[in-house]
């Protein structure tokens, strides 16, 4: 009998805990910094897609990779944006080179694709390549599967448009809501003491 009375009392506690966890998760997803990052990512993707058709040659035929490059480079600070964007471009270049190496040997076969994907994952372990490691096998597969008989044009367009997107993403991150730590700066200024006639005046934040 004791168990039948104890069981209903536990259910509201579990439900309340789940509700609190859900609310906490939603609130963390809608912080000011997250909203600013989402706005910058949306703006950068739109601008990159608007610029993409104006790229020279065959690159204009692959405008959808420019917004992808903008998203790849979006980070909560400018230094991180530059680092992620450059690492992604290096990974793309390595992946494209890997795909062309495979094509130069012969027609892609299941065994050859498996071997070269393994090589791409190994190359991802190179020092300082960071987030670009995931792009090496991804770019190689895209060149092989999507490029088809137009691998040269696709590779050129893919790399150019991603570069455009990365550049736009870095520029937007630098110019729009620049990630300056105003609170930390204000706190530091609040601790400054200014000399005046041998005495020190402490400045406090209002």
Beta content comes to under 5%
Strand order, main sheet: write it out: 1-2
| Main pleated-sheet profile | 2 strands, antiparallel
Radius of gyration: 26 Å
For this entry, give a set of tags.
single chain; 206 residues; mainly alpha; two-stranded antiparallel ribbon; 2 strands; 69% helix; 4% strand; globular; disordered C terminus
Structure in words:
Helices cover 69% and strands 4% of the residues. With 206 residues, the protein is mainly alpha-helical. A hairpin with a 2-residue loop joins β1 and β2. The termini are far apart.
Helices and strands, with pairings:
Blueprint: H1 2-29, H2 32-51, H3 65-72, H4 78-105, H5 110-123, H6 135-145, H7 151-175, H8 182-190, E1 193-196, E2 199-202
Antiparallel strand pairs: 1-2
Helix pairs in contact: 2-3, 2-7, 3-7, 4-5, 4-6, 4-7, 5-6
TL;DR?
With about 210 residues, the chain is mostly helical. The chain has helices spanning about 1-30, 30-50, 65-70, 80-105, 110-125, 135-145, 150-175, 180-190, and strands at about 195, 200. It contains 8 helices and 2 strands.
């Amino acid at each position: 009998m004791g168990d039948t009375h104890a069981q209903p009392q536990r259910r509201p506690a579990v439900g309340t805990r789940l509700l609190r966890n859900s609310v906490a998760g939603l609130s963390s997803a809608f912080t000011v910094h997250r909203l600013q990052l989402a706005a910058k990512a949306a703006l950068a993707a739109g601008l990159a897609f608007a610029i993409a058709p104006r790229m020279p040659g065959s690159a204009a035929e692959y405008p959808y990779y420019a917004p992808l490059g903008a998203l790849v480079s979006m980070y909560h600070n400018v230094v991180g944006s530059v680092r992620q964007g450059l690492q992604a471009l290096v990974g793309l270049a390595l992946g494209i080179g890997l795909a062309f190496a495979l094509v130069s040997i012969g027609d892609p076969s299941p065994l050859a694709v498996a071997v070269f994907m393994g090589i791409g994952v190994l190359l991802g372990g190179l020092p300082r390549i960071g987030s670009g490691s995931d792009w090496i096998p991804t770019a190689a597969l895209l060149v092989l599967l999507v490029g088809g008989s137009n691998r040269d044009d696709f590779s050129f367009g893919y790399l150019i448009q991603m570069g455009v997107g990365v550049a736009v993403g870095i520029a937007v991150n630098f110019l729009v809501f620049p990630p300056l730590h105003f609170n930390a700066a204000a706190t530091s200024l609040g601790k400054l003491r200014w000399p005046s006639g041998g005495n020190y005046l402490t400045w406090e934040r209002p």
